[in-house]
């Protein structure tokens, strides 16, 4: 069986679903092929911080009802270290912008429902086994067996380990990769937030982070040795480490609860350049994997989806492929700015085990606490791309 469509999309994460919804709103036929089941896609706990540009895209295109109803504005973050704690009201700095806290699994659930209501089609449980960028064709296998889907254009939104990235010839352009030498234990706890703000704790034992996801669920991060086994971190060990690194004896107790998820996240960066070849265009993590240190991944994906949707609409409705030809040139400068700030955050939150680098980290924190120009830099880059 061969499925024919206008824009074929691999991957039903934020990148693919935003792109598909924007195209469906313009009457463009689309088909999404996704390797996970619908339940798996709608329960994957990932990012939760939407920047102002992402919130704008969702609201302007009728995709933000859930976000507007249940999302929470967040404009303050805090830093804890050996010299105490300070808060940055980044909503009052820079351009005066805030984040909207809305769990990614809730956003994905909203986007799937909206896409299906607009007449879109998704093949869940379909693993891509081959990609042809020249003919915008993918081969896949699902519970019915082997299948083929083809379109005029193909959008690769299937992540950094997906099949579409591999379809761009290795000799075309450059592939940049950086392992930052840092790993985090990402934890979800059925527990209310312990602090009003996102909190970054800097400690000689390693970084710890606190990010509320909802009134009942909180995301925590703990820096751990690369290659550590998440199952070796019992609930008791996790809360003990958080108590130490969050300095609860100085700032007050955490509100603990059952740990529902624990996984290791290696802080890595990857950028494909260019992010297009023939009829194939990469979006989101397929185009550029970014460390979670600055909450840019989903926001880059939504930005790229909007750029690509506009270019495809121009090509299909106005027979003008110039914006498509410029897709890489349009997106990659912003990708690199996001990567640079992500690396800046890694250097701020972690250090090498020597006195010189500890002193540098301390100086960075002092500057961020005391220097208004430094604070404005942080605010503009923290919420923007």
Task: Provide a short characterization of the protein structure.
This protein is an alpha/beta fold.
Layout of SSEs?
Blueprint: E1 2-4, E2 7-10, H1 14-24, E3 30-33, H2 38-43, E4 49-50, H3 52-60, H4 65-70, E5 72-74, E6 77-81, E7 84-88, E8 99-101, H5 104-117, E9 122-123, E10 127-132, E11 137-142, E12 145-150, E13 153-156, H6 163-166, E14 174-189, E15 198-201, E16 208-212, E17 218-224, H7 235-245, H8 248-251, E18 259-273, E19 276-277, E20 280-282, E21 288-289, H9 297-318, H10 322-325, H11 327-349, H12 355-370, H13 372-383
Parallel strand pairs: 1-12, 2-3, 2-13, 3-9, 6-15, 13-20
Antiparallel strand pairs: 4-8, 5-8, 6-7, 10-11, 11-12, 14-17, 14-18, 15-16, 16-17, 18-21, 19-20
Helix pairs in contact: 1-5, 1-9, 9-11, 12-13
Structural description of this entry:
The protein has 385 residues and is an alpha/beta fold. The chain has two domains: 2-73 and 101-178 and 268-347, FAD/NAD(P)-binding domain (3-Layer(bba) Sandwich), CATH 3.50.50; 180-266 and 354-383, D-Amino Acid Oxidase, Chain A, domain 2, CATH 3.30.9.10. It has 13 helices and 21 strands. An eight-stranded mixed sheet has the order 7-6-15-16-17-14-18-21. A six-stranded mixed sheet has the order 9-3-2-13-20-19. Strands 1-12-11-10 form a four-stranded mixed sheet. Strand 15 (198-201) and strand 16 form a beta hairpin. Helix 1 (14-24) packs parallel to helix 5 (104-117), helix 1 packs parallel to helix 9 (297-318) and helix 12 crosses helix 13. The longest helix is centred in the C-terminal third of the chain and has 23 residues, at 327-349.
